[in-house]
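Lab notebook page, bench 4
Experiment: in silico fold of construct C2
Operator: M.H.
Input chain length: 180 residues
Purpose: comparison with the prior construct
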Amino acid sequence: DWPHMRQTALLYREPYAAILAQYALMKTGSHTGMLTQIDDPGDFSAAVLTLAQQWAKTLDVQLDCKKGVPERPCGSTHIVSLEELLTSPDRAKKLRSLVEFGGVTVDDERLRCAFEHAETFHRTGGLSVAEAFCGNLLSAEVLDKLATTLQDGIGAWGYAPLDCDAHKVQEKTVRSWALP
């Protein structure tokens, strides 16, 4: 029930990466599972469209919280993108702020441990966004429906539409999550 919310932490993620991660979870049964290929493009196409609708709906609710829409009182709101949380130079400050917003005190050693764990946990060798969305797995019709479904959320949260060339370049650059 919305009236019972006193505070809301909003963690959002680039839609194509979020959809691929959720699909990997569905197929592997694990948040740490990794896909190296997609065996059934028909299943992937159907799942992608459903997951895109879920992403868009979730982001609409979060955007209402961000805007302070009266019908959705979210109390105090803390907003951070997953990309910022993992790669920005001040990511330790962002993580501390998010955790402390939840009422938990965190010391520097715990923060360092969290990012070191993320570094050793960093998955390589899995299917990339470019491979999943820019190859031959999805028809032009599915890609058009996907873009239409995600359009409003992408713009509202500052993401760019899918650019396959940019994703290929970005994925060649491996970033370290460890704290300096």
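Observations: The beta strands are 7-12, 76-81. Helices lie at 15-28, 41-67, 82-87, 91-101, 108-121, 129-134, 140-156, 164-172.
Next step: discuss at group meeting.
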